[in-house]
Amino acid sequence: MSLLDNLNQDMKTAMKAKDKPTLSVVRMLKSAVMNEQINLGHDLTEDEEIAVLSRELKQRKDSVAEFEKGDRDDLATQTKAEIKVVEKYMPAQLSDDDVKQIVTDTVKDLGAESMADFGKVMGAVMPKLKGQADGKLVNQTVKDLLK
């Protein structure tokens, strides 16, 4: 079952349950997926679907940080609830230890030794972890290992 099929099914379920917050998020996700599909001119591959979901998730996480900085706990709470809905559609996330192991292996394979190799390591690691780990976590892990 494709992501759009899942979103349509969940949208119907949310409508029947009169779950407005979930319905709103599912509609936004469906809209983002359909816009990406129109922009690319073809049905999305699984990787492209994950990229759209990752982008939506990152936007919401960034929003939470900004809301908390501005003492807007009401909006932060609402956005955290949206994050939980988006995460339902994401692939399972790797633990910090798993991310560190993958980054460590990649650093060894590439022979990276300093921060000058940062871009090369990130370029090799991100495709391996696509959708399975937060980019900020990967970035920090690579920096820690290259220091």
From TrEMBL:
A GO term, aspect molecular function: carbon-nitrogen ligase activity, with glutamine as amido-N-donor
InterPro entries: Asn/Gln_tRNA_amidoTrase-B-like, GatB_Yqey_C_2, YqeY/Aim41, YqeY/Aim41_N
Signal sequence extent: none
Domain of life: Bacteria
Pfam family of the protein (one): YqeY
Name under which the protein is recorded: GatB YqeY domain-containing protein
Species name: Paucilactobacillus suebicus DSM 5007 = KCTC 3549
